[in-house]
Predict the structure.
Amino acid sequence: TRAGPEIGVASTKAFTTQLVAMLLLTIVLGRRFDLKPETETDLVRQLESLPRQVEDVLGLDEQIRELAETFADKHNALFLGRGAQYPVAMEGALKLKEISYIHAEAYPAGELKHGPLALIDADMPVVVVAPNNELLEKLKSNLQEVSAREGRMIVFADRNAGVSESEATRVLPVAPTDDCVAPVIFTVPLQLLAYHVAVLKGTDVDQPRNLAKSVTVE
């Protein structure tokens, strides 16, 4: 992936660049079929707006750093996402375990009752990705299930999603964005969260223990 040098072992910009590359590939393939010109124009416009949108979400850095303090003494964490945001949740969980050495698991929010719900209590941080899309109401139902079991949540939510804060739920608003680029936008704060937790724990962010880039080590 042409993302420039990736200094840290735990790739970050390579992941988001691959998401962009996949969207570009989708546009190219769409031209061979029935992608409407106006749809292609809109997709390209969304891609062009990514730098500005990423800058906006980086504005959450200080809030994320403060929230990271709630993770410093934890041993487990759960990440939830629905639809296209499930792989984003997986990326967030992977980064947390790679650089902070906290066991983290990602799960489709709609599958909570198939196991993860049994793990949730006041000592299990739950990180949720909540874009404003057709799955939002179902996701809110999942949030209620977590809340009913005294789970403590950090929710990265579209500003227009209407996700409410409570004593046990912190909501960090993300500027409204199109579904096609939302995975890129929501990945960034999850990576930042992992970074700040690792810094607080005093781990080596760039060279985590026991890890190496698979392209350089057999």
Notes: The helical segments are 13-31, 37-48, 50-58, 61-68, 86-100, 136-148, 182-201. The chain has seven helices and five strands. The two ends are 20 Å apart (CA to CA). Residues 46 and 56 are 14 Å apart (CA to CA).
